[in-house]
Batch of 4 targets.
Target 1
Amino acid sequence: MEITVTSKKVSSYNIVTKESFEDLSSILIDIFPDIKCVCLVSDSNVFPLYEKEVKEELKKIKGLKIHEYVFKAGEASKDMSVVEDLAKYLLSVNFSRSDVIISIGGGVVSDLSGFVASIYKRGVAHVNLPTTLLAMADASIGGKTGVDFEGIKNTIGAFDMPSLIYMNLSTLNTLPDREYYSGFAEIMKHGLIADQKFYMWLIDNMYEICDKDKETIAQMLETSINIKKAVVERDPLEKGDRALLNFGHSIGHAVESYFEGEYLHGEAISLGCVAEAYISWKSNMISMEDYYEIRDMFVPFNLPISIQVDKKAEEEIFKRLLNDKKNDINSINIVLLNKIGKASLVKGVDQNLIKEAISEINFKDED
Ligand SMILES: NC(=O)c1ccc[n+]([C@@H]2O[C@H](COP(=O)([O-])OP(=O)(O)OC[C@H]3O[C@@H](n4cnc5c(N)ncnc54)[C@H](O)[C@@H]3O)[C@@H](O)[C@H]2O)c1
């Protein structure tokens, strides 16, 4: 599969899906005919798994110098200290503006290395080799890069388009199940905001998806990528419609940062989707039946639909939501569902309703 993401406002790039890394060198040469030096950026789990394969492949490019920078796996590394450390490393090896950063890993690796690529010497090219379902369906596409700051998700970052996204689907074979399902949450979100037929297809293919059937995964990714592509092509710099991709993320990010790593990103988004679907129902935008169906549809994909905390924690989660990037002064703005397959950004959502939604996903013993 080859999909080109094009927009008048930003540079175009290709997304290719393959079953190995064996076409990587030839595609890189097509894009960068004079490529001389790359820096592989990866995390401590992924690099040992794919270092050899990727380096073997890159050796096909005559005289290519290969540097490598590996950081500790996990969201905690999406931090300014790692940005600084990577920039220092690049300086130490005389990495120049004509060189290319290649990220190998999940969304943490592509968010961090894409951000460093956007600021190092005012910008160097970067290529993403996503290795999680979440990064393939979502994080590696669309040019949003960045790190967390002061405990708040993605506070410092930049829009910076990759030059290529090369997906080797066989890397999913080593991905732990919990990470696989976490990635599925963003795919479900794509169906919920933009394509009711796809949402139904996901439910109909539940067993194949859970069995990680190769053809089903390839088909699922193709549709999901095309949904994201259509949104980011219309609005690459998130001045309007692109915010719709944030369904589930206002409350999801608040939950994710409150629990400090207890929930994976997609798991927090699953909780956020349930809470925000609840607000959609209570705002008379979707029916009660739709709400309960959406809530229950995350369960077979091993995704959480409830947390268990005290009242004080509910308040703390609400407070974290006040820092969401979509908000204006005195107005909380949340993406809600108009129906399954259609979403809109609603401004000035009632604060009491948001608190009620957080309480709705909070499982209490008397429930
Ligand atoms: N930029 C965007 O548009 C965007 C969109 C969605 C999410 N995100 C960000 O993406 C991040 C989450 O991404 P993620 O879920 O990929 O997390 P991740 O990068 O932390 O990867 C998840 C875990 O899986 C391991 N791993 C990755 N690939 C593997 C493989 N093939 N085999 C074995 N282990 C593997 C990693 O080492 C890590 O421990 C969050 O920080 C989120 O904010 C960004």
Note: The chain has two domains: 2-174, 178-360.
Target 2
Amino acid sequence: MALKFYNYDIVFQEIPDEVTLAVNLTGCPHHCEGCHSPHLQRDTGIALDEEALNNLLSQYGQQITCFCFMGGDANPRELSRLATYLRQKTKLKIAWYSGNSKLPDIFTHFDYVKTGPYISQFGGLKSPTTNQRLYRNNGGVPQDITARFWR
Ligand code: SF4
């Protein structure tokens, strides 16, 4: 399935110490109970390809330090291809908010990867009981930095 996005925003808390352009991808294959964004489960939106990335970079590239794919679990191969494209085009950090429970094999294509579906009784990353994790790519080794959200 081709990757598409619904909207985007500049955010400050999703990735610690970074000013992040968070791009919300659609076609989410997860069906989390209590999903905060059910519209992202639909196959709708604007194609996320090199042209779209170039447009986003030319508009916001000077204002941000990080580019985050919010979703994209429907097509991780295409996601890693786009991450590689960004890596060649910019010096921005590259992040992926995945809903998968396990750290994906393509982890090394990113500087940060968040894992885990949203489970309401455990809460999101800011909840100390969360099932979600944020990993930093520390030279190819995943470092769990989830506790940064609890300070
Ligand atoms: S991963 Fe996010 S968008 Fe997808 S179903 Fe779960 S809460 Fe909704």
Note: The pocket of iron/sulfur cluster is lined by residues 28, 30-32, 35-37, 40-41, 99, 117-118 (CB under 6 Å).
Target 3
Amino acid sequence: MKYLVFSDIHGSFYYAKIMESIIKKEKPNKIILLGDLYYHGPRNPLPVEYNPKEVANLLNQYQDKIIAIKGNCDAEVDQMISLFKIKNHLKLTINNKKVMFTHGHKYNIDNVPSDVDVLVYGHFHTCFIKKTDDKIFINAGSITYPKDNTPHSYLIIDKNILTIKDIEGLAIDQIIL
Ligand SMILES: [Mn+2]
């Protein structure tokens, strides 16, 4: 299985189109969206080509591949315009490791859910891979609004190899489960 993981699009049609070009190049089996799909949020400036409706139209074309997770900026109306379900969390088992996908505003490196080996999230707009004694934390970053000099980023999960890449396709960090 190959997954592409994107987070925090925040309504930028410009970066949604870049995301689509990455999808066409990488040909994943599934696309995991870690939340904050359409609304820019009151803490952010308006993103490049802010157009939530066009972002929804683009995402809806991939409805069969998308697994979406709810972010703190995602409202009830966002589910209404989406042809895919927006859920609270996703749990997968990869190479016998329990991997949980969540937005990150509730569960993150400072509030770790029990019974999880790997926690994958977004929300903070900074990509990283951090390993502790018994857990792994991965932030996919934000495709639209990276912070703290991190790149516009996403995560590729190809079998048990997890790679953070920038939008040029350059590998930033990698971990093998
Ligand atoms: Mn968020």
Note: The chain has three helices and twelve strands.
Target 4
Amino acid sequence: MQTPSSARPILGPGFEIRHYCGLFGIAGHPKAADLTHLGLYAQQHRGQEAAGICTADGGRILRQAGLGLVTDAIPEGSLDGMQDPLAVGHVRYSTTGGGSPTNIQPLLVQAAYGQRALCHNGNLVNASSLRSAYERRGHIFNSTSDSEVILHMLADERYRREADPLAAVLRDLRGSYCLLLMQPDRIEAVRDPSGNRPLCLGRVDGAWVVASETCALDMVEAEYVRDVAPGEIVTLTEEGLGSRRFVDEAACRRAHCIFELIYFSDPSSRVFEESVHLARKAMGAALAREDGVAADLVIPVPNCARCAAIGYHEQSGIPLGRGFTTNHYVGRSFIQPTQAIRDLTVRLKLNPIRDAVAGKRLIVVEDSVVRGTTTRAKMQSLRRAGATEIHLRVASPPIRYPCHYGIDFPQRSELIANQRSVDEIRDYLGIDSLVYLSHEQMLNSVQNANADYCTACFSGAYPMPIDENFRKDLFEASKQVSR
Ligand code: SF4
């Protein structure tokens, strides 16, 4: 069983990038709450700020949620009174709306038409304008999350008069969203028309399961059936599964987030009908294919680059080894927004194994470089441990543009590749050579290439309209101003 300590580190090599939110839902199972708990554990790498579960018995919805890891937010025994046949759950990293308790999902509301619970993975680029319109009409928002506006829209008479109010609401949303919307007798699972984030369906003991990643299906021993299609609403009830579309298939322009394959998803998962492990291995092999540098050892920067390092090793024939130990026990209290603390965190999280790297010419494989500051700290630590040459190979292209679809990259000005050439980055990192995976090699490493993938953080070609003024703390800021 995968536990938080063996999942993606809370801090560590990738802590510059926050990705957010994992979803899990199940209908028609006597252990729905417990399986949802497990499904969230399996997806802890998708969010560590908060977690929550709602269950339903056909008549009412109950909720258990809190800040922190799944173990803290949903402690043992807290689900004892929630053994209902329907459950949805959410793990959160906040990109929009901060980490306050009011933003923990599932959001649960008591509306005139009944209870509704909502889980969201993604980012609504038009949340600001939608919310402003409701605030002008006197609506009170309880959270600073972009997701809450969906609940206000669902309560809006304008949409409720439609034959399919949910479909009408979804057609007015812009951006990236996978949703689980719970009513007392059903779960509706939604994927936006671009299919930007993954969402899959499985079956266990005759019950239907929905999850962000297939590793959650594996955790509850569910069999993968298919992905929820872009533009589709799937209804899960105790009786079975229903499906309808809110956007015609022909009108759906797919833009799967390629960063799910590079970094976010668990290597044991298949996302976008693609093996994460094999895609990463292919990216590492592509890096090695045209690389003539002589070296003694290939080492991954743990943990995300392990699969790419295997690919590099297999392609190049250079021995694969371990260059770092990883400390899984560094707590969240160490997250601080200063460079000094970030450097300290890198040292706490990753310690070079002196006897493995001293006197060696190293190929160091990294999944991505964002600000460059933590990468530099890692390279310096290898140098101090006695590495004679350091050749950094990055299994993705330079990140030059921010993500507007839910990934918390720093501002454009903080992205090192936006500010410096590859040679300048090499000098800044203090290494002997630096090679990034090309855009073409990246797409060649996945099966559903070209138009199926969003690559905007590398190319600047945003597949969906963006709000240039968007900031992750937008609603936090507006709340502060109004106080
Ligand atoms: S911009 Fe990058 S991180 Fe954001 S959705 Fe596109 S590929 Fe993913």
Note: The two ends are 46 Å apart (CA to CA).
